[in-house]
Q: What sequence folds into this?
């Protein structure tokens, strides 16, 4: 049985869901972002219990068909931003259309109508959060981050980051470094 989960966007979310299923003695076949597959059907009572457990972590089971499609769109966007280090050979619009078997126009209009934002704006927001994360980890240079997130140039990344946060990536990085006090300086 497939069950769809709203706001499931990271590996930690998968652990929360896995723990909740374990607590309820429900055997999962597969747990993916936004989606659970179980060996057996789950009763409405078990769904209610599962939903109340995962709600604590900001997750929620989706019952309506339109919610399922929104989560599928979100899943493709999150995967595109977080898991595709290599630049895809196709545009995001083609990728999304192929993944979900709908025209991009239909998906974009549907997403905008339900979420009150565009797919492009949502991807930019995801990218900005990913940039912040990568800067805070400090493993990649701004140039490497730009390449990883499929920006045409560092200037494009910087302009988009500044427009969204009010800071340049290098200023954001320096703030992080200023906040950290080494043990020797305490």
A:
């Amino acid at each position: 049985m497939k069950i769809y989960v709203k706001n499931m966007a990271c590996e930690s979310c998968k652990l929360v869901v896995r723990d909740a299923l374990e607590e309820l003695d429900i055997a999962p076949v597969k747990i993916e972002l936004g989606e659970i597959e179980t060996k057996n059907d789950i009763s409405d009572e078990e769904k209610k219990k599962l939903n109340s457990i995962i709600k604590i972590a900001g997750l929620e089971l989706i019952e309506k068909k339109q919610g399922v499609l929104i989560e599928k769109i979100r899943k493709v966007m999150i995967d595109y931003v977080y898991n595709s280090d290599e630049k895809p050979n196709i545009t995001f619009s083609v990728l999304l259309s192929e993944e979900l078997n709908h025209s991009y126009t239909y998906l974009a209009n549907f997403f905008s109508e339900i979420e009150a934002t565009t797919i492009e704006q949502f991807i930019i927001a995801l990218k900005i959060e990913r940039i912040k994360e990568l800067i805070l980890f400090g493993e990649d240079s701004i140039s490497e981050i730009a390449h990883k997130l499929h920006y045409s140039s560092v200037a494009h990344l910087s302009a988009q980051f500044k427009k969204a946060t009010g800071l340049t990536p290098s200023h954001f990085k320096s703030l992080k470094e200023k906040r950290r006090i080494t043990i020797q300086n305490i």
Notes: Residues 46 and 117 are 34 Å apart (CA to CA).
